Amino acid sequence: MKTLLNLIWLVLAGFWLAVGYALAGVLCCVLIVTIPFGIASFRIANYVLWPFGRTIVDKPNAGGWSALGNIIWVLVAGVWIAIAHLTTAAALAVTIVGIPLAIANLKLIPISLMPLGKEIVPTDRAFAAYGR
């Protein structure tokens, strides 16, 4: 089921959202100071291409710099990517098949707003970082 959802997602939303994240990553890598934002954007672009079967967890050792970086990210690119997720979710929610994809798209908004200090793991390892 995950593979089928991922294929439908890739065709209807994932490719274009990944292109948006990749563009944000390229723009962020132009300046040396914003390279961590670019790396985070490329990592999320990979996640957005094939999201089902993976989840996002907090890194236990992320510090204050990631919080400061997230504030800068929201002001520079996060708001625009979150708007892209909202627009895509609204378009997907029009059909019955698209409703689960729209819900998945809405679940991506928090990572689009605050990508630093997060880690993408398979769903069977979601709590492995916490020793559970």
What can you see in these coordinates?
With 132 residues, the protein is mainly α. Helices cover 66% and strands 8% of the residues. It is globular, with a radius of gyration of 15 Å. The longest helix is centred in the first third of the chain and has 29 residues, at 2-30. It has helices at 2-30, 35-49, 64-92, 99-107, 109-113; strands spanning 54-58, 118-122. A two-stranded antiparallel sheet has the order 1-2.
Question: How would you concisely characterize the structure shown here?
Answer:
The chain is mostly helical. It has 5 helices and 2 strands. It starts with a helix and ends in a 10-residue tail after the last strand.
The neighbouring-strand order within the major sheet is 1-2
Q: What structural class is derived from the secondary structure elements?
A: mainly alpha
Query: How many DSSP H or I helices?
Result: 5
Number of strands: 2
Q: What portion of the residues fall into strands of 2 or more residues?
A: 5-15%
Q: What average pLDDT do the residues reach?
A: 85
The backbone outline, from C-alpha atoms, is: globular
Distance between the termini: 26 Å
Order of helices and strands: HHEHHHE
Poorly predicted segments: none
Assembly classification: single chain
Largest sheet: 2 strands, antiparallel
Q: In percent, how helical is the residue content?
A: 55-70%
Alpha carbon gyration radius: 15 Å
